[in-house]
Amino acid sequence: MKAWLSKSAAWLWWHLPFRRRTRQAIKTAVFSWAGFPFKKTRTYRNWVEMRKLSQGIAWDAESPFPSHYDLTLLDKKPEAAAKAQAPRRVALVIHAFYPDIFERILSRIEAGCSPEANLKVTAYVSTTAGNEARVRRISEGRRFPVAVEAFPNHGRDVLPFLKLAARIEDEDAMVVKLHTKKSNHRLTGDLWREELLAGLLAPGRIEKALAYFHEHPGVGLIGPAGHIVPMSLYYGGNAQALRFFGRVFSVSVQELQTMDFIAGGMFFARLAALKPLLSLHIPDTMFEAEAGQSDGTMAHAIERVYSLSARFQGMTLADTSFPKSEASLRASQDHPFTW
Q1: Cα dist. 124→22, 63, 112, 239, 283 in Å?
Q2: On the CB side of 195, how many CA atoms lie within 13 Å of its CA?
Q3: DSSP class of residue 154?
Q4: CB 185 within 8 A of CB 300
């Protein structure tokens, strides 16, 4: 009954004919004046956390960075890739925290890639020690090689991704970053995951992304259509980390606020677009311990820093509408999964 009510509420909220600002105002009014019945719900807890994270944090704050930040990175210039090659191989980098969803992702990839396309695919999979055996069983007998490695449950999908992506040696690889997202703090978490995966793994979509990178050498990252959002969206919890990486990548506070990023942390990427970020070798100690946070961690910040890395390489963003011109891309001001 509880699961049915939760899904019904998600469906209703999803179909309300209001834009993002109106939805935010509705949520704030209801939770501020009549929040008691909702206090045990994940939606209410997420709203409270977001309000706390967003209060009193300014982009241009000169306060010291947290003690767990590695300040030596401020003096370390990121390394740009020598030359951005047109991708010819596919490197799937998947964080399999939830094995059941991971199995569906692999099946979706196999169904969506035509054997006639003759793609050269390798999968690099991270998981936790407790799930490693099951993930290895799921990975057996696939149409492409799958390398599985267990990591501590630290840094969400982001820290394992940085480690695995840094090991990819094929300079002509197109990275496909995927993870078994659930976003349990949101009623629409499952809907969000399915829309992200549909955007990237629809039949023929991987082949089309490869072709698009060939035709548009200035594009570094391709996100699912509708999921390119302004950097300033919920920036409060990430402002300090973004200010830090803005200094690392020589991006001013003013420029940061005009940039976009890919919401949801799943995308296609030229390896060259990620190289500046990967060259930093961000230490594990900069990632907070796992405590169920819904925003404001280093992992959340790095989701935005991928865009800074591409910019440092002189590249822009696109999405799976595959616009004829990168300049025609418009960020979503009404992203349905961040209301």
Answers
A1: 41, 39, 18, 31, 20
A2: 15
A3: -
A4: no
User: Are the beta carbons of 141 and 54 closer than 8 angstroms?
Assistant: no
Q: What are phi and psi of 335, to 5 degrees?
A: -65, 120
Model confidence over 2-40: pLDDT tens digits? 556 655 665 666 566 666 667 667 777 777 777 767 776
Helical spans, DSSP H, in the chain = 2-15, 20-34, 42-54, 99-112, 132-139, 158-165, 189-201, 205-215, 239-248, 253-256, 271-278, 298-312
158 within 8 A of 302, measured Cβ to Cβ: yes
Which residues, including other chains, have CB under 8 Å from residue 194's CB and lie 6 or more apart?
Answer: none
pTM recorded for the entire structure: 0.86
Which residues are CB-neighbours of 203 under 8 A, at least 6 positions away?
Answer: 111, 112, 114
How far, CA to CA in Å, does 316 sit from each of 44, 107, 208, 231?
Answer: 36, 31, 18, 14
H-helix or E-strand containing 260?
strand 260-262
List C-alpha distances in Å: 218 to 29, 98, 121, 206, 273.
Answer: 44, 35, 23, 18, 10
- Write down how long the chain is: 339
Secondary element (H or E) of residue 267: strand 267-270
Poorest-confidence range of 14-18, 115-119, 200-204, 326-330?
14-18
Alpha-carbon distances of 226 from 85, 143, 192, 319, 334, rounded to whole Å: 27, 30, 11, 8, 9
Structure-block tokens of residue 102: 């991971």
DSSP state of 173: E
Rg (CA), the chain: 20
Helix, strand and coil content of the chain, in percent to the nearest 5, comes to 45, 15, 40
- Give the span between the Cα atoms of 262 and 158, in whole angstroms: 14
pLDDT band, residue 316 (cuts 50/70/90): very high
The per-residue pLDDT for 7 is 59
Cβ atoms of residues 162 and 299 within 8 Å: no
